[in-house]
């Protein structure tokens, strides 16, 4: 049953139009097809059909992808095609301890908080307080904020004693934070570094090789959607091309960081 505070997706029948909104008391969703009084949705069930102006529409419970593309962004988002790959390659599972730097819009924070379940923990570092505040709001909608510890500051200042099963690094200059990130990882822990440019990849791979990281892999994920029309089935006219390079690796013993194993 739909209640105040729920997020909802209004999807028009026979149309590509979608509207993502929150059910707030006294609010009105304004669209090209007509206005919708959000109070009227309270008590209805997800999946029900309603009228939006002269059109039929459905009340859909939004997915995380719907939420990601509806975010008010302070930074570039991590795209769903990359999110899924990162979760699998870092092998995030219930009970894991996951660190990230920086938080950005909170997309990966939300994904990690879902994957670690109640027994896990996410620690997220972000230097900019304004980014952190916006990310916290996003995580409340997309993930499980009670599983996340937000830290305002540089990951180099981390004093946590608990080691991480996985580390996700998404900062403007990743090379400056690599040693700190690797030092937080458990042995056999996995790391992912997001690098928008090729020169960052080259620098990152070089540094990882000196920090006890093996099985270094570099990936670029491309995805293309198709028109779901049986009579005119073909690729969509536009696609998201390059978003980022993903650098992965696994920590092992045998190399020293600042004189420590």
Write structural notes for this entry.
The chain is α/β, with parallel strands linked by helices. It folds into 2 domains: 7-62, Vcp-like ATPase, Chain A, domain 2; 67-251, 3-Layer(aba) Sandwich (Rossmann fold). The protein is built from 6 helices and 13 strands. The protein has helices spanning 64-69, 80-89, 107-115, 129-142, 178-184, 198-208, and strands spanning 7-12, 18-22, 28-31, 34-37, 49-52, 55-60, 97-101, 121-126, 148-152, 164-169, 185-195, 213-219, 245-251. The strands form 3 sheets. The chain has a 7-stranded mixed sheet with strand order 9-8-7-10-11-13-12. It has a 4-stranded antiparallel sheet with strand order 2-1-6-5, with no helix packed on it. A two-stranded antiparallel sheet has the order 3-4. Strand 3 (28-31) and strand 4 form a beta hairpin. Helix 3 (107-115) crosses helix 4 (129-142). Residues 257-261 have low confidence and may be disordered. InterPro entries: SAM-dependent_MTases_sf, TRM61_C, tRNA_MeTrfase_Gcd14.
